[in-house]
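Practice problem: predict the structure.
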Amino acid sequence: MVEKVSTRERLLAAAEELLLSEPYDDVSVRAVCAAAGANPAAVHYHFGSKEALVGALVEDRLGPRWAGGLKGAPAGRDSIPGVIDAILAPFTELASDPLGRLHLRLLARLVIGRHRTVWQGPWFQMDAWAALLPELDARAARRRWMLAFDLIIMRFGSPEIDENGMGARSLETLRDFVVAGLIAPAGEQP
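Answer:
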């Protein structure tokens, strides 16, 4: 029996294929719909906007890769180096593949550009990560995780990252810097 691919999946696949060969700003909603063989309004019906489509694509393709980094991770400063290693491993793997680099660049565009999108999975929710830092109040923990992810995503989403990825020394420095920022003692809270 032939499995029917949903319109949503066809739109995601079409967007992914177009974004691999064309700059983000040159890929229109109309082109995505045409490539998917869908009604011209399908992107708006299923996602609401081009940014939401790209957000769904990123979450759909990347979320499962990081699910293990959060799931079952013990809370507390001592667990943070292992959690960061679990976060960085998929980034390193993705950076060595053209499709993976596309996903990382799209993630960087959405996160660093502060594009509004509705994230569904726990990996994309700051409260889930903040719970891993019980020594801090939730607001401070969220702020630290946001800075950590901004830095990681900015580095891996950079156009400078090619099939060779990030050098071992740079990766180690990034890891150590992020861990230090997350586990640093709490200062005075405003």
